[in-house]
Amino acid sequence: MPRQPFIAGNWKMNKTIGEGIALVEELKGMVAGIDDVDIAVCPTFVALAKVGDAIRGSNIMLGGQDTFWKESGAWTRQIAPGMLLDAGCRWVIIGHSETRGRFGTVEDELERVLSYFGEKDITVNMKAKAAFAAGLTPIIACGELLSERQAGRTDQVIAGQMKIDLDGFAKEDAMKIVLAYEPVWAISTGQVCDAEEADRVCGLIRAIVKDMYGADVAEAVRIQYGGSVKPDNAAELLGKPNIDGALVGGASLKANDFVGIINGARA
Ligand code: PEP
Description:
Blueprint: E1 6-10, H1 17-31, E2 38-42, H2 48-55, E3 60-64, H3 81-86, E4 91-94, H4 97-100, H5 109-114, H6 121-134, E5 137-142, H7 146-150, H8 154-165, H9 171-174, E6 178-181, H10 195-213, H11 215-220, E7 222-226, H12 231-238, E8 245-248, H13 255-264
Parallel strand pairs: 1-2, 1-8, 2-3, 3-4, 4-5, 5-6, 6-7, 7-8
Helix pairs in contact: 1-2, 1-13, 6-8, 8-10, 12-13
The structure holds phosphoenolpyruvate.
Phosphoenolpyruvate is lined by residues 10, 182, 187-188, 226-229, 247-251.
């Protein structure tokens, strides 16, 4: 069975509630009737419920940008998977390089040392399992730093992340997971990964899934590419055999750009 392309917009820390509603109101009209591409937006936590109301009944789905592995309790700041489901989410991004504290663009040494949120592969794995338990599907992101690529360690870094991130799922859950290959140096830099190379790494990820879960799961799992995807490079990337969609940051903030990428998946 061919894999349906999946384009997800990660709004990161952008858009007020009102701006988010305005964006999806514009998007709804532009993507109405598209049924050969799955489409999702991932607003900030505070905008989820209202944006969810605005897209109800449309072909745009809702996702969270992160979650926690506990169901409830004294965990200040955290959002449980069940809360995302309650707000209307079907998807949740887990292990984005910005929550892992791995940056391609931060120049400031202090900011690098602070490392922001310091996500670990083991917590990515725990969050993804908690997401399934609550009825969500995780989009698990992985990717190498520029220094790791320059040192020839890309494949090793990806394999190391995937083996822990994907450990121990039930086969029926593993089949539904969406993976996102996001080279950290390509995120928000305008420096997109060469399409052949992105396809090669996505193929490596698929081979790792095959080793861990078998050929049927590897064939079913969708692997997105993320990192400076724009309307003018989308069709080339999305035309590659191992790239089944895109996780889009900056270009998901403008309806025209996001729809240009969605159309790239249909070319
Ligand atoms: C991202 O952060 O997931 C991303 C791909 O960002 P951008 O599209 O802005 O590079």
